[in-house]
Amino acid sequence: MMRCMQSPEVEPAVVDASAPATHSTFAVSRWRQGEIVLSPDEVAEEVPVALEYNGISHAVMLATPADLEDFALGFSLSEGIVASPRDVYDIEIETREHGIAVRLEIASRSFMGLKERRRSLAGRTGCGLCGTESLEQVMRMPAPVQSDASFHTDVIQAAFVQLQLRQDLQRHTGATHAAAWLRADGHVSMVREDVGRHNALDKLAGALARSGEDIATGAVLVTSRASYEMVLKTAAIGAGLLAAVSAPTALAVRLAEQANITLAGFVRAGGHVVYAHPQRLQHEASLA
Questions:
Q1: Is 4 a catalytic residue?
Q2: 16 — pLDDT class (breaks 50, 70, 90)
Q3: Catalytic residue among 43, 50, 100, 127
C-alpha cells in the first residue's frame, strides 16, 4: 500500500521477505587464461511489470522487481498520467503467474485524461519511448526548471563514489543501472537500481515525490548515458542538474538547454564535460 509522505534524514533500509527476488544464482562456466572453472554467479532478475490504472492495464515494462511503488508513482508522474502524487490514492502490488501487476487508483480527472490518450505500451528493457503513437507524444516540451542548485565539481565527483558504493545489486550482478539524488550538502540520500536506466530514474522520481526532499537545490546522478528521455524525466522531477557517467545525445543537449537543466556527461575521477547551463557547477580552474 502507498505510504504517507515523509521527510527522512537518512533513507531507511527496509527488507521485505515476501518481495520477489532481485537476483538469482546460476552455475556457470568461467573461462579465464585458458582454464574453465565451474562456479556460482548471481544474475539480475527482470520481470514483466504491468501498470494498471483504475482497473485498466496501460503499460507492461520489463523491470527489476524492487521499489515498484516508487516505479509506479515515478512513471505516472514522468509520463504525465498524474500531475501530482496527490492524484494517486492507492498503490497495490500483486504477484501473478507471469509477472507482477501494480494496481494504481488515481483521481477521476487523471483517469479521464489517460483514457483520452490511452495507448498500448510494451516496453523492452530500458525502453523509454516504446509504444508511443505519434511524434507529438515523443517531443514533449516541459516548462523550464526553476532550480537554485549549485555544486562544486569536487562534490559531484565524491557523490559518484558514494553512488558506486551503494549499488548493491550492481555489485552482485554487474547488470543494473542506478539513479541517485544528491542533496545540496553533498549527501547522496537516495539510490534506486534497475536493469533499465529509465526504470531506475522513474523509481527515483517516485521516491522523491514522497520524500519531502528539497528538489530546488539537489541534483540527479545516473550511471548511464544521458538520453532525451533521461533529461525529460529530470525535468518532470524539477531538478536543475543531471550528471551522467556516459555521453548525452544531441537531442538531450537541446532539451536541457530549453528546459534550463545543467547537463554534465562523462563524469569521471578528475573530469567531466558540461553540455548545457554550466552556471550550476563551480570549479577553480579557468576555461582553457
A1: no
A2: low
A3: 127
In the chain the first and final C-alpha atoms are separated, in Å, by 53
Least confident of 123-137, 194-208, 222-236: 123-137
Cell numbers describing residue 19: 518481495
Record the cell numbers describing residue 28, joined without a space: 556457470
What amino acid is encoded at 207 in this protein?
A
Distance between CA 244 and CA 222 in Å, rounded? 5
Q: Which domains does the chain have, with CATH numbers?
A: 151-282 (3.40.140.10)
The pLDDT tens digits for 57-116 are 999 999 999 999 999 999 999 999 999 999 999 999 999 999 999 999 999 999 999 988
How far, rounded to the nearest angstrom, does the alpha carbon of residue 164 sit from its chain's CA centroid?
A: 15
What are the strands of the beta sheet with 47-53, ordered from one edge?
A: 88-96, 99-106, 47-53, 56-63, 121-123
Q: Which of 50, 221, 230 is nearest to 126 (CA)?
A: 230
Q: Which of 68, 99, 75 is nearest to 1 (CA)?
A: 68
Q: What angle do CA 5, 7, 10 make, to 5 degrees?
A: 125
Give the pairing of strands 151-152 and 281-282.
parallel
Alpha carbon separation from 161 to 114, 166, 269 (Å, rounded): 40, 9, 9
Q: How many degrees, rounded to 5, is the angle at CA 175 between CA 190 and CA 240? A: 35
Is 84 in a helix, a strand, or coil?
Answer: coil
State the pTM of this model. 0.87
